Amino acid sequence: xxKEEEAPAAEQRILVIPGEELGDNSYKPGTxxxxxxxxxxxxxxxxxxxxxxxxxxxxxxGRYMPRPGDSVIGIIKDVGPSSWIVxxxxxxxxxxxxxxxxxxxxxGKTSQYLRAGDTILAKIGQVDExxxxxxTLKEPGLRRLDRGHITRITPSKVPRVIGKSGSMxxxxxxxxxxxxxxxQNGIIWMDGDSEGIAYASKCIDMxxxxxxxxxxxxxxxxxLIDKYxxxxxxxxxEELDEEEWE
Length: 246
Description:
CATH 2.40.50.140; five-stranded mixed barrel
């Protein structure tokens, strides 16, 4: 019989409530838990997850809390003479200075490059103790997104949309023919034809709604097979950008 941390991921998705006992001190308390005596308890409503000797509780809801290095989809909220305010789906606004973009921007000319409402693929640079967030575009692949469609999910469910080793998002891309980028802040960007985007969005809604359920990958695959048949829609090489999106 498998130990709990060796069990398949689907078998670990146990819904727990605050105060529920999760295990003893043979494990370490992780995110969403607390230690009382020699027992570990849940501190919030979520899904129990055991990994690398830690017991965690992944919340079913809540806002995104930025961490340095996170890849995010951001939306320009406001424009200043030397910076932009970026909505990264967090309770706290993020700042992107002209030094954090790949262009040489003169003072007062920021709106010539990014305007309110523009969507960007960015990274979280720094987050200080007062939750001042810095966003950057100065890394390969980061850019303004000039087309496509965005949707939002609960940030804690991002790992389910991505899947183990990217399996879930790859499944969606292969069948719908869409490019998909899953921001760690719960904002997802998709680009493709209208049918592909519609079915990709339905898959993502299903994952967001039923993330705690077993067999979710098989359900998503069956949904796509029902729409497209057993063979995925594979894009021809000329339809790909210079770099493939994960």
